């Protein structure tokens, strides 16, 4: 098997996650889809590290994880705050900038 | 002494500042402040004059550098003054006559609630006029030039509640703008040619410039002079300017401001001497205006407008003389001074008459006033004799010299100009006699006004009569004094230069001819207005009379030749603006607006839609990258 | 060059699991189910990391991602997700189509780009991992990438502080005491006494069943609103109510012989009915 298959899998997961972001209304699920996309990227990084024979790709995946952790903390805090004021977790309710 | 020159301008400027910003609390004393500062300026002028008399030759020219105005590389504009014999003459005329008219105005404007403002404007005028004649460069002169224009505008429109006065003020200002434009372009050309606009460098290099440039500068200066001095073709504003209070007419529109054109041409003698074509244009303008003003003066029943026509005509004499070159400059200035005296006297007399006649200006409603206003009658009469050139009085000495100089120009030009000047003298005698007879002689013709108030003609208060008496003295003796030992000639010669003209006809013959046309004009006027009663309603008159009543159709000409085409041009431009310019602008705006309205729908506020846009954009970027790499 | 057969088999099995998990994440109605699907996908990815020589990342993926972050998600789901099932019906016009177009287009482009790239050989991590994977990563992190590493430290601190700021609610006035609260309740005319108990029957005794009012209808007050919001109330079924009504009818019929002949049947009927249901309800 060619390790490129891992990349195809990453692309597929990324696309599925992107579709989720566009389709789902529940902010938490949207967030999970974002995480899915990040994980797909990480898989691609790890695979590239293997293809190229050095560890830089893994380092990048590592940083992605750290940043994702930070993002999750802030993002979930925003969702909780939003839910407190709106009693809703739907991203469509946060549409004050509509025309 | 030199530093006192700044104070000449400063005193009336201070007065204007105090009076125009002082507010109501100065209402009771304001007019005396105005008179005091005007008189102060005159006293300073007299001191400087005495000092100047004590010197001789080129030492008489005093300069005073106040500060650098616009120092930019080669462009050096300074606020500095130059007081030579020519400026001195003007300074004494302006401050002297100006002070007298200030005093006169105290009485004349007594009933006006805005008297303080009036005196503020008068002081402003004095300051601007002194700046004009004292400047040592053309830019500063231009500042004074615009300053007097502003003061003139403010004073013509002083009674701005009258629509006619407001319109007249605007007319004067706009017509003057044409002339001012000429002067400003002249200064620009001057700077481009000589690299300077100070009198010294310009005049010393005048002969080295090309003939064409000098002619252009000369003609543009003449245009400026025409605007300010109401010469053909920019003469139309002067008659309407009589809407202003009579002291204003006397000071600004007879004695001083309107002679600024003569000053400009005389001051720029170095340029005109080197540009014969421009000089010829000056004489032509002078001669045409001379006749033009005289003919208008013959037909007007409004006493101030008749005098305005006369002013135009007399300034025509001066311009004519100034155009004759070194043989005429001195006489132009001399006539300017004597004219300043007798024309101011005439206007003040007219003001006195109006003061006694409930502000009536129609001479057909005067008549027989000599019994009611003896002082006015005598002073007006003396000024009248002076203007028509009665032998021995001021006008005789100055006007006669101009006629002689016109003949002395030589050739066909000389004959034509001399003839015109001679003819003008005759017409002057006619219209001035007409004014005199209709106002002071004959039966009384006044009628009660609409409210039934019969006018009660009475002599004016002392503040008005004293200036008139002083001016009458000037009208009588100034000319003789100036001609005594050719004192005025020797006084001005170092500045303007002088060459004795040689007339093809003998001097005696010219003088005799002058007296003959004088007698003819006088007699004709007597036949028409003295021997028979003056009709209270103007007769229809000949075609020329009717045209002259309409200022020889000058306004009609301006209307047809300038205003109408201007209107059509404006309409065309408005149409162009509306259809083409606005079309493009509005079309662009509308299409942008329409596009924005559609683009706006993309901003629906849903974060998921934005996510779609982002992913779509990323897809496009990926596609573009792949294409670029040649996939 | 290719990988071992074992890895290929593992890949093909687990890749299917990962894709199914991803699809589940996107399509499950309840957030909890989505989170579980995502956790599954993440564990599969951890296995892939391990298989590709990223031992450290594989462990981190399980410990940090699947362990910590997914737990955080679940906490928030508990806090927020009471409204439970999320409707999958689309409300924005054209969103589905645009999303499908963009998603498919993007996916196809990505996969086409990968297919086109000539990645037919791979170096493998044998050399890079020779000194140990963790040591190799550490060397890079603390040498080449030390600046980025320090920055991520700052980022984490900022994120923690940010989350605290976002969720913190400032108390602007003194907390009300028990006494004040009860006084306020009396003043507002709210329920002063304890709420009525949920339905208690001979055969059923549960908090998720509402008590019945004398007329036989269910009382809103008797069950916890949270349970109702979650849709976890077991309703008193219509069948049982019908049985009750039938029982009462029967007993009335039985009593009617004695009473109906003396009094007006209609009135007596209403009184008896009320008495009956009251007794039943209590």
Automatic annotation (TrEMBL), chain A:
Q: Where are the transmembrane segments?
A: 6-23, 28-48, 60-83
* Entry keyword Disulfide bond: no
Q: Quote the subcellular location field of this record.
A: Cell membrane; Membrane
Q: How does it sit in the membrane?
A: Multi-pass membrane protein
> What is the annotated signal peptide range for this record?
none
Q: What class of enzyme is it?
A: translocase
Lineage, top-rank taxon, reads Bacteria
Q: Which UniProt keywords apply?
A: Cell membrane, Membrane, NAD, Oxidoreductase, Quinone, Translocase, Transmembrane, Transmembrane helix, Transport
The EC code for this enzyme is: 7.1.1.-
Q: Which reaction does it catalyse?
A: a quinone + NADH + 5 H(+)(in) = a quinol + NAD(+) + 4 H(+)(out)
Q: Give a yes or no for keyword Membrane in this entry.
A: yes
Which molecular function term from Gene Ontology is one that the record holds?
Answer: oxidoreductase activity
Outline what the protein does.
NDH-1 shuttles electrons from NADH, via FMN and iron-sulfur (Fe-S) centers, to quinones in the respiratory chain. The immediate electron acceptor for the enzyme in this species is believed to be a menaquinone. Couples the redox reaction to proton translocation (for every two electrons transferred, four hydrogen ions are translocated across the cytoplasmic membrane), and thus conserves the redox energy in a proton gradient.
Looking up PANTHER family in the UniProt record yields:
NADH DEHYDROGENASE SUBUNIT 4L-RELATED, NADH-UBIQUINONE OXIDOREDUCTASE SUBUNIT ND4L
NCBIfam families (UniProt xref): PRK05715.1-2, PRK05715.1-5
Provide the family line: Belongs to the complex I subunit 4L family.
Subunit structure, per the record? NDH-1 is composed of 14 different subunits. Subunits NuoA, H, J, K, L, M, N constitute the membrane sector of the complex.
Q: What is this protein called?
A: NADH-quinone oxidoreductase subunit K
In the UniProt record, the gene name given for this protein reads nuoK
From TrEMBL, chain B:
Protein's cellular compartments = Endomembrane system; Membrane
Keyword field contains Cell membrane: no
Question: Could you tell me which residue ranges the NADH-Ubiquinone oxidoreductase (complex I) chain 5 N-terminal domain spans?
Answer: 69-119
Pfam families from the entry?
A: Proton_antipo_M (PF00361), Proton_antipo_N (PF00662)
The way this protein sits in the membrane is described as:
Multi-pass membrane protein
- UniProt keywords, alphabetically: Membrane, Transmembrane, Transmembrane helix
TM ranges are 31-50, 87-106, 118-135, 181-203, 209-227, 248-265, 277-299, 375-394, 414-437, 468-488, 508-527, 607-628
Using the record's annotation, list all stretches that form the NADH:quinone oxidoreductase/Mrp antiporter transmembrane domain: 135-418
| Protein name in the entry | NADH-quinone oxidoreductase subunit L
By which gene is this protein encoded?
nuoL
TrEMBL record, chain C:
- The answer to whether the entry has keyword DNA damage is no
Q: What is its EC number?
A: 7.1.1.-
- TM stretches of this protein: 12-28, 35-56, 62-85, 97-117, 137-166
Keywords associated with the record: Cell membrane, Membrane, NAD, Oxidoreductase, Quinone, Transmembrane, Transmembrane helix
Matching InterPro entries: NADH_UbQ/plastoQ_OxRdtase_su6 (IPR001457), Nuo/plastoQ_OxRdtase_6_NuoJ (IPR042106)
Q: How would you classify this enzyme at the top EC level?
A: translocase
* Biased amino acid composition, Basic and acidic residues: 251-266
Location of region: Disordered: 175-197, 251-282
Per the record's keyword annotation, is Transmembrane helix included, yes or no?
yes
**Bilayer topology annotation:** Multi-pass membrane protein
Q: Which residues form a coiled coil?
A: none
Q: Which reaction does it catalyse?
A: a quinone + NADH + 5 H(+)(in) = a quinol + NAD(+) + 4 H(+)(out)
One example GO MF annotation: oxidoreductase activity
> Where is the protein found, in the record's own terms?
Cell membrane
Task: Please give the function described in this protein's UniProt entry.
Answer: NDH-1 shuttles electrons from NADH, via FMN and iron-sulfur (Fe-S) centers, to quinones in the respiratory chain. Couples the redox reaction to proton translocation (for every two electrons transferred, four hydrogen ions are translocated across the cytoplasmic membrane), and thus conserves the redox energy in a proton gradient.
The record's PANTHER family line, in alphabetical order, gives: NADH-QUINONE OXIDOREDUCTASE SUBUNIT J (PTHR33269:SF19), NADH-UBIQUINONE OXIDOREDUCTASE CHAIN 6 (PTHR33269)
The family line of this record is: Belongs to the complex I subunit 6 family.
Database matches in NCBIfam families: PRK06638.1-5
**Protein name per the record:** NADH-quinone oxidoreductase subunit J
Origin organism of this chain? Streptomyces humicola
């Amino acid at each position: 098997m060619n390790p490129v298959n891992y990349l195809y899998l990453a692309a597929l997961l990324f696309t599925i996650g992107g579709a989720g972001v566009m389709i789902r209304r529940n902010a938490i699920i949207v967030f999970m889809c974002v995480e899915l996309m990040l994980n797909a990227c990480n898989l691609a990084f790890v695979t590239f590290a293997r293809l190229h024979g050095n560890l830089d790709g893994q380092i990048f995946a590592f940083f992605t994880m750290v940043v994702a952790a930070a993002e999750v903390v802030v993002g979930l805090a925003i969702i909780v705050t939003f839910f407190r004021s709106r009693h809703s977790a739907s991203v469509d309710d946060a549409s004050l900038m509509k025309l | 002494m030199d530093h006192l020159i700044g104070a000449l301008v400063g005193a009336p400027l201070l007065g204007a500042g105090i009076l125009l910003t002082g507010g109501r609390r100065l209402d009771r004393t304001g007019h005396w402040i105005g008179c005091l500062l005007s008189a102060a300026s005159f006293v300073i002028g007299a001191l400087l004059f005495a000092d100047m008399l004590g010197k001789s030759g080129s030492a008489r020219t005093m300069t005073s550098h106040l500060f650098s105005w616009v120092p930019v590389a080669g462009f050096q504009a300074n606020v500095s003054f130059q007081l030579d014999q020519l400026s001195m003459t003007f300074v004494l005329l302006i401050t002297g006559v100006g002070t007298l008219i200030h005093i006169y105005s105290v009485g004349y404007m007594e009933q006006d609630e805005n008297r303080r403002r009036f005196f503020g404007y008068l002081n402003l005028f004095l300051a601007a006029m002194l700046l004009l004649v004292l400047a040592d460069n053309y830019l500063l002169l231009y500042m004074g030039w615009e300053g007097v224009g502003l003061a003139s505008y403010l004073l013509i429109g002083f009674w701005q509640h009258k629509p006619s006065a407001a319109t007249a003020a605007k007319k004067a200002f706009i017509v003057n703008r044409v002339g001012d434009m000429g002067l400003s372009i002249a200064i620009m050309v001057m700077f481009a040619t000589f690299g300077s606009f100070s009198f010294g460098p310009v005049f010393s290099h005048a002969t080295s410039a090309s003939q064409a440039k000098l002619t252009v500068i000369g003609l543009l200066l003449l245009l400026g002079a025409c605007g300010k001095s109401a010469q053909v073709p920019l003469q139309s504003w002067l008659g309407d300017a009589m809407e202003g209070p009579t002291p204003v007419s006397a000071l600004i529109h007879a004695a001083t401001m309107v002679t600024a054109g003569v000053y400009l041409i005389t001051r720029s003698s170095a340029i005109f001497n080197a540009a014969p074509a421009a000089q010829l244009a000056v004489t032509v303008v002078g001669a045409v205006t001379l006749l033009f003003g005289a003919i208008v003066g013959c037909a007007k029943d409004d006493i101030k407008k008749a005098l305005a026509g006369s002013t135009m005509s007399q300034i025509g004499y001066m311009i004519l003389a100034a155009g004759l070159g070194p043989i005429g400059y001195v006489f132009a200035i001399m006539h300017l001074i004597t004219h300043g005296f007798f024309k101011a006297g005439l206007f003040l007399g007219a003001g006195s008459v109006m003061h006694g006649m409930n502000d009536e200006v129609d001479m057909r409603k005067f008549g027989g006033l000599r019994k009611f206003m003896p002082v006015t009658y005598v002073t007006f009469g003396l000024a009248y004799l002076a203007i028509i050139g009665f032998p021995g009085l001021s006008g005789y000495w100055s006007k006669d010299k101009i006629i002689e100089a016109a003949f002395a120009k030589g050739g066909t030009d000389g004959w034509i100009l001399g003839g015109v000047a001679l003819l003008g003298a005759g017409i002057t005698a006619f219209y001035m006699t007409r004014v005199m007879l209709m106002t002071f002689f004959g039966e009384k013709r006044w009628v009660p006004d609409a409210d039934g108030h019969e006018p009660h003609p009475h002599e004016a208060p002392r503040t008005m009569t004293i200036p008139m008496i002083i001016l009458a003295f000037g009208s009588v003796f100034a000319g003789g004094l100036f001609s005594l030992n050719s004192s005025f000639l020797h006084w001005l010669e170092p500045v303007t230069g002088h060459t004795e003209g040689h007339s093809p006809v003998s001097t005696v013959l010219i003088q005799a001819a002058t007296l003959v046309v004088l007698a003819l004009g006088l007699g004709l006027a007597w036949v028409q207005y003295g021997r028979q009663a003056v009709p209270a309603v103007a007769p229809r008159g000949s075609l020329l009379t009717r045209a002259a009543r309409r200022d020889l159709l000058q306004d009609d000409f301006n209307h047809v030749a300038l205003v109408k085409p201007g209107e059509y041009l404006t309409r065309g431009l408005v149409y162009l603006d509306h259809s083409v310019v606005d079309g493009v602008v509005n079309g662009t705006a509308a299409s942008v607006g329409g596009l924005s309205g559609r683009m706006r729908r993309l901003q629906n506020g849903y974060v998921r839609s934005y996510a779609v846009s982002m992913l779509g954009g990323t897809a496009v970027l990926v596609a573009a990258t792949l294409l670029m790499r040649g996939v | 060059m290719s990988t071992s057969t074992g890895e290929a088999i593992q890949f093909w099995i687990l890749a299917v699991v990962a894709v199914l998990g991803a699809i589940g994440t996107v399509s499950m109605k309840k957030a909890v189910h989505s989170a579980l699907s995502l956790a599954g996908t993440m564990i599969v990815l951890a296995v892939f990391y391990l298989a590709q020589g990223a031992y450290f990342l594989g462990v981190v993926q399980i410990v940090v991602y699947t362990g910590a972050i997914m737990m955080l998600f679940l906490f928030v789901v508990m806090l927020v997700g009471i409204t439970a099932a999320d409707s999958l019906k689309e409300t924005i016009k054209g969103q589905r189509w645009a999303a499908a177009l963009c998603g498919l287009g993007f996916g196809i482009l990505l996969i086409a780009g990968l297919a086109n790239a000539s990645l037919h050989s791979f170096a493998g991590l044998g050399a890079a991992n020779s000194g140990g994977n963790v040591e190799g990563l550490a060397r890079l992190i603390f040498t080449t990438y030390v600046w980025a590493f320090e920055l991520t430290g700052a980022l984490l601190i900022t994120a923690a502080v940010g989350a605290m700021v976002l969720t913190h609610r400032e108390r602007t006035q003194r907390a009300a005491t028990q006494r004040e609260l009860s006084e306020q309740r009396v003043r507002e005319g709210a329920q002063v006494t304890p709420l009525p108990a949920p339905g208690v029957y001979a055969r059923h005794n549960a908090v998720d069943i509402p008590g019945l009012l004398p007329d036989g209808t269910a009382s809103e007050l008797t069950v916890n609103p949270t349970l109702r919001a979650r849709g976890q109330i077991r309703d008193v079924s219509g069948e049982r109510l019908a049985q009750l009504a039938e029982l009462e009818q029967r007993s009335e019929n039985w009593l009617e012989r004695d009473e109906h002949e003396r009094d007006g049947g209609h009135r007596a009927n209403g009184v008896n009915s009320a008495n009956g249901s009251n007794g039943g309800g209590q």
